[in-house]
Amino acid sequence: MTAFTEKYRKQIFWLILAVSFFMILAYNFLTPYLSDDYAYAIEVRQAKSLWDLVKQQYGEYISNSGRVIGQFNVRLSLVFDKWVFNLINSLMFIALALVMYANIRRKKKYDIFVLILIITFLWKFAVSFGQTMLWICGSCNYLWGSVFILGFVTFYRYFLYHVDKIKHHLPVAAGAFIFGVAAGWCNENTSGGGLLLVLMFGCNFWLDRRQRKEKGIYPFMISGVLGMCCGILGMISAPGVRSRSATMSEGEYTGLVGLLSRIYKLTLRIRELFFVVIVITIIVLVLLALQKKLCGFKRLRNNETILFLVAATATCYALAIAPTPADRAFFGAGIFLFAGCIQGIIDVSDTEQTIRAAKYSLACVLCAWLFFAYLDNLVNLARIYREEQERINLIWEEKGDPEEDGILVIPQFREAFKTPYSNAHESDLQDDKDYWINLFYEVYYDLGNITAIPRDEWEELYGEEK
Predict the structure, then answer these.
(1) Is 252 exposed, middle or buried (0-12, 13-18, 19+ CB in 10 A)?
(2) Would you say the pTM of this structure is higher than 0.90?
């Protein structure tokens, strides 16, 4: 079996990527518009041109959010049919896996083991998968944003490792600046973590070259960092960020007490979201220390596992300066943590059979978990999609009946179908016609009023007549 795998490693590698693409594609097709998708869709359909979308995004920059890259991608995604987003979003999932793969050093060419770990880590441990990987508004900000950020880190590291091959420094520096601006303008804490990674890799490069008395600073290193700084400043200085933060922070503790309170809450959330990965990482670090791969400051500062863990920690605790965030704000920190953990697993010497067995057992267990979890949640997503289509049909029937009064009651999603791979239940309609998502539906479908009640109650009251 090992000989077969080695012989066809390249083909198996691309087969795994192809299977992964179709796996996430199926989930995308079973995810309807949800939550804020309706609010943005209402705005987008009023736009007559690309310039109108730009003006809408500028209005949001002034009033609500500085995330120009992610939010504009949301608007572009809603211009086209949903299947276009489904395809692009699935490609972005594969792109995230590949940029994570590119940042793992000392691996084999077409390393199947590394690829399996990355894909299973994303499915198993990614924060709020339904909100950050499938929901349009969440995907464009978190999944796509992480691809831009980690893509820039990959770009930066590539030229650090191949600096002597750069023939034209000016175009590379200009590209680094533009790419850096885009990466910096994606997400407040994740872009900051990406900047920290770039600075750490750049400083290590400079120190190592300085010890050899070689040139250690190149134009792309400076322009890339400046680009990320410009992007981050452009995002956090948006007028909409200040007004939104002021609204979200009402009722929270302020000053030192408020900061300590937020740090405490963040620590608890880190434990809840990443405890298993943290345990694996601790075991890996102990093994690396026992194998004398973390001895001395130089080895520590150059160890990618340590650097990614520092970036992940900083990305998490940067949230302490803002009001209490949603779990999805930890998504980028998780990506850095996964990269660091997987890098450590690769670096642990597996000359001993016990360690080698532990490594491959971990990958096999994660694959087994993914098989069962994927099928189970695929069915639940199909059920949610079916119920959403049923509700939309009820809306169109209401609108098409001249005798109806425009006041519609529809069933809520069944609680039994709730899954972490969908944001449907967290943003479901309520029995209050003035609830935020109810208002989105009313405007989007041009209804008088719409409310929702539990499925059992709805069946008793309206099931037969409908």
Answers:
(1) exposed
(2) yes
Q: Which of 96, 98, 103, 17 is nearest to 340 (CA)?
A: 103
Q: What is the pLDDT of residues 146-180, one digit of tens each?
A: 999 999 999 999 999 999 888 899 999 999 999 99
The residue written with tokens 């997987």 in the block is: 342
Q: How many C-beta atoms surround the C-beta of residue 238 within 10 A? A: 21
Whole-angstrom Cα distance, residue 221 to residue 225?
6
Question: Residues near 410 by Cβ (< 8 Å), separated by ≥ 6?
Answer: 391, 394, 395, 429, 450, 451, 452, 458
Give Cα separations from 10 to 107, 181, 347 (angstroms). 14, 35, 22
pLDDT in tens, 286-308: 999 999 998 888 889 999 999 99
